Amino acid sequence: MSKALFTQRRDSRVAALQYIYAWSINEPKNLAEDLIVFFENMEQPRAHYAYAEELIQGIILNQAEIDGIIKGLAQNWDFDRIAKIDLGILRLAIYEMKHRKDIPPVVSINEAIDLSKQFSNLDSKRFINGILDRYKGQVGRDSRKVETA
User: Fold this and answer.
1) Distant-in-sequence, close-in-space partners of 73: CB < 8 Å, separation ≥ 6
2) Tens of pLDDT along 100-115?
3) Span 107-128, average pLDDT
4) How far apart are the first and last CA of the chain?
Protein backbone atom coordinates (compact mmCIF):
# COMPACT_ATOMS: atom_id res chain seq x y z
CA MET A 1 0.00 0.00 0.00
CA SER A 2 1.36 3.41 -0.89
CA LYS A 3 2.14 5.90 1.86
CA ALA A 4 -0.48 8.29 0.43
CA LEU A 5 -3.20 5.62 0.55
CA PHE A 6 -2.11 4.59 4.06
CA THR A 7 -2.35 8.22 5.22
CA GLN A 8 -5.72 8.66 3.53
CA ARG A 9 -7.06 5.47 5.18
CA ARG A 10 -5.76 6.57 8.57
CA ASP A 11 -7.32 10.04 8.15
CA SER A 12 -10.56 8.35 7.09
CA ARG A 13 -10.59 6.07 10.14
CA VAL A 14 -10.08 9.07 12.42
CA ALA A 15 -12.87 11.00 10.66
CA ALA A 16 -15.20 7.98 10.75
CA LEU A 17 -14.53 7.50 14.46
CA GLN A 18 -15.22 11.16 15.17
CA TYR A 19 -18.48 10.99 13.23
CA ILE A 20 -19.63 7.69 14.75
CA TYR A 21 -18.84 9.01 18.23
CA ALA A 22 -20.94 12.15 17.65
CA TRP A 23 -23.67 10.08 15.98
CA SER A 24 -23.85 7.75 19.01
CA ILE A 25 -24.50 10.72 21.28
CA ASN A 26 -26.87 12.68 19.04
CA GLU A 27 -28.27 10.83 16.03
CA PRO A 28 -29.04 13.31 13.23
CA LYS A 29 -32.47 13.51 11.64
CA ASN A 30 -30.96 13.57 8.13
CA LEU A 31 -27.74 11.58 7.72
CA ALA A 32 -26.91 12.90 4.23
CA GLU A 33 -27.23 16.55 5.31
CA ASP A 34 -25.30 15.89 8.50
CA LEU A 35 -22.45 14.28 6.53
CA ILE A 36 -22.24 17.32 4.23
CA VAL A 37 -21.80 19.61 7.23
CA PHE A 38 -19.34 17.21 8.88
CA PHE A 39 -17.06 16.94 5.86
CA GLU A 40 -17.22 20.71 5.16
CA ASN A 41 -15.40 21.20 8.46
CA MET A 42 -12.58 18.75 7.76
CA GLU A 43 -9.02 19.69 6.81
CA GLN A 44 -9.03 17.91 3.46
CA PRO A 45 -11.62 17.94 0.65
CA ARG A 46 -14.50 15.49 1.04
CA ALA A 47 -13.05 13.15 -1.63
CA HIS A 48 -10.03 12.55 0.64
CA TYR A 49 -12.42 10.93 3.13
CA ALA A 50 -14.22 8.61 0.71
CA TYR A 51 -13.23 5.62 2.84
CA ALA A 52 -14.59 7.38 5.95
CA GLU A 53 -17.96 7.75 4.27
CA GLU A 54 -17.95 4.06 3.40
CA LEU A 55 -17.13 3.19 7.02
CA ILE A 56 -19.77 5.54 8.43
CA GLN A 57 -22.52 4.26 6.12
CA GLY A 58 -21.52 0.63 6.73
CA ILE A 59 -21.34 0.97 10.50
CA ILE A 60 -24.72 2.71 10.71
CA LEU A 61 -26.35 0.24 8.30
CA ASN A 62 -24.96 -2.76 10.22
CA GLN A 63 -25.09 -1.30 13.72
CA ALA A 64 -27.44 -3.90 15.22
CA GLU A 65 -25.34 -6.78 13.90
CA ILE A 66 -22.05 -5.17 15.01
CA ASP A 67 -23.43 -4.34 18.47
CA GLY A 68 -24.64 -7.93 18.80
CA ILE A 69 -21.11 -9.15 18.08
CA ILE A 70 -19.68 -6.74 20.66
CA LYS A 71 -22.25 -7.82 23.27
CA GLY A 72 -21.34 -11.46 22.66
CA LEU A 73 -17.63 -10.78 23.04
CA ALA A 74 -17.72 -8.34 25.96
CA GLN A 75 -18.20 -11.04 28.54
CA ASN A 76 -19.05 -9.80 32.03
CA TRP A 77 -19.30 -6.25 30.70
CA ASP A 78 -22.48 -4.21 30.57
CA PHE A 79 -22.77 -2.96 26.97
CA ASP A 80 -24.29 0.36 28.07
CA ARG A 81 -21.25 1.04 30.25
CA ILE A 82 -18.73 0.79 27.41
CA ALA A 83 -17.31 4.26 26.81
CA LYS A 84 -18.83 5.78 23.64
CA ILE A 85 -15.39 6.39 22.12
CA ASP A 86 -14.37 2.76 22.76
CA LEU A 87 -17.66 1.57 21.31
CA GLY A 88 -16.97 3.66 18.20
CA ILE A 89 -13.51 2.12 17.84
CA LEU A 90 -14.94 -1.38 18.25
CA ARG A 91 -17.74 -0.74 15.75
CA LEU A 92 -15.24 0.55 13.19
CA ALA A 93 -12.82 -2.37 13.57
CA ILE A 94 -15.52 -5.05 13.61
CA TYR A 95 -17.14 -3.53 10.53
CA GLU A 96 -13.79 -3.68 8.73
CA MET A 97 -13.04 -7.22 9.89
CA LYS A 98 -16.46 -8.50 8.86
CA HIS A 99 -17.14 -6.56 5.67
CA ARG A 100 -13.79 -5.48 4.21
CA LYS A 101 -12.05 -8.59 2.89
CA ASP A 102 -9.37 -6.37 1.30
CA ILE A 103 -8.08 -5.43 4.76
CA PRO A 104 -6.41 -8.13 6.88
CA PRO A 105 -8.04 -8.38 10.33
CA VAL A 106 -4.71 -7.70 12.09
CA VAL A 107 -4.53 -4.34 10.28
CA SER A 108 -7.99 -3.44 11.59
CA ILE A 109 -6.93 -4.46 15.10
CA ASN A 110 -3.69 -2.47 14.95
CA GLU A 111 -5.53 0.59 13.65
CA ALA A 112 -8.11 0.24 16.45
CA ILE A 113 -5.32 0.08 19.05
CA ASP A 114 -3.75 3.21 17.54
CA LEU A 115 -7.11 5.00 17.66
CA SER A 116 -7.56 4.00 21.30
CA LYS A 117 -4.09 5.39 22.13
CA GLN A 118 -5.01 8.66 20.42
CA PHE A 119 -8.59 9.10 21.67
CA SER A 120 -9.11 6.95 24.77
CA ASN A 121 -7.22 5.85 27.87
CA LEU A 122 -4.63 3.16 28.59
CA ASP A 123 -7.13 0.66 30.01
CA SER A 124 -9.24 0.93 26.88
CA LYS A 125 -6.39 -0.36 24.73
CA ARG A 126 -6.39 -3.68 26.58
CA PHE A 127 -10.20 -3.94 26.53
CA ILE A 128 -10.42 -3.19 22.79
CA ASN A 129 -7.55 -5.53 21.96
CA GLY A 130 -9.15 -8.35 23.97
CA ILE A 131 -12.51 -8.04 22.22
CA LEU A 132 -11.02 -7.74 18.74
CA ASP A 133 -8.59 -10.58 19.33
CA ARG A 134 -11.51 -12.84 20.30
CA TYR A 135 -13.43 -11.72 17.22
CA LYS A 136 -10.41 -12.35 14.98
CA GLY A 137 -10.78 -16.06 15.80
CA GLN A 138 -14.41 -16.00 14.61
CA VAL A 139 -13.87 -14.18 11.31
CA GLY A 140 -13.07 -17.40 9.46
CA ARG A 141 -10.15 -16.18 7.38
CA ASP A 142 -6.39 -15.73 7.67
CA SER A 143 -5.96 -12.73 9.93
CA ARG A 144 -2.83 -11.55 8.14
CA LYS A 145 -3.97 -11.81 4.54
CA VAL A 146 -6.23 -10.00 2.13
CA GLU A 147 -9.05 -12.22 0.89
CA THR A 148 -9.54 -12.19 -2.85
CA ALA A 149 -12.77 -13.18 -4.58
Assistant:
1) 131, 134, 135
2) 999 999 999 999 999 9
3) 94
4) 19
